[in-house]
Amino acid sequence: xxxxxxxxxxxxxxxxxxxxxxxxxxxxxxxxxxxxxxxxxxxxxxxxxxxxxxxxxxxxxxxxxxxxxxxxxxxxxxxxxxxxxxxxxxxxxxxxxxxxxxxxxxxxxxxxxxxxxxxxxxxxxxxxxxxxxxxxxxxxxxxxxxxxxxxxxxxxxxxxxxxxxxxxxxxxxxxxxxxxxxxxxxxxxxxxxxxxxxxxxxxxxxxxxxxxxxxxxxxxxxxxxxxxxxxxxxxxxxxxxxxxxxxxxxxxxxxxxxxxxxxxxxxxxxxxxxxxxxxxxxxxxxxxxxxxxxxxxxxxxxxxxxxxxxxxxxxxxxxxxxxxxxxxxxxxxxxxxxxxx
Length: 341
Prior knowledge:
- This protein has one domain: L-arginine/glycine Amidinotransferase, Chain A.
- Helices cover 24% and strands 24% of the residues.
- It has nine helices and 19 strands.
- β11 and β12 form a beta hairpin.
């Protein structure tokens, strides 16, 4: 889909300069049933790496949780803890998507309508209110959208191109009474994009988001996209991910240019407590000077992913971080963060 309406905002690409990263402190044991204990330490390591290159703003979660953000983060430099209560950790999805107003370059937070991935995980009222709280802390205007959407379902090149999936935005539990045209118009209005590429081959088994794009395909520059593909043909994800790859090879950007599409093989399938975990290296986070890449104790594919991303983003330091325990909550570092330009 292409849009000819003149935009009033621009959504910066993730590699553009950032002021801060927003984090929601992990506290919901139900997110990691039987495996919560190592998660806060994984988050401390994540925040520590981010704080070396930019500010980190942490929503502390409910009072009285143990271990608390304050206890574990101490006086870590560049880290501010805010007394904002949340239901869960996945701030990429319920936090604001920050855009720049073209008229004066002012920061604006887009507040999508959040219903916990189609009502899967009630209660979610505190998460749904977090974007407004963040915009108040930042001191920026908030654009409230009617679109039921999560930030992890959206990916941009910063130049008007948007990647997303129908399985998320057109699902019966999110926007059942809206046409594709209405959804596209709202995305163009709120994000200033002019070209939407629907990546609809298939998702990753175990992913409870219905197919977030940040597990499937990510821009690493204005013309290059890495796409999750299966490491082995017997993987249940193989056919769908291969179709994602092929569809992006056929696609063009907002400027009409063909994309440079690079396959990024996933780890070998892993089952934990009878459930497939949705491991994908596409869930990396680009920050100032660095790229934080989830690793999954899958030596061969971990090494291959790190080498590939190092080649594609040579101006940044690649920081591997163990997401072996974090992924049991069905997300990794991109899901657990939201950048502020």
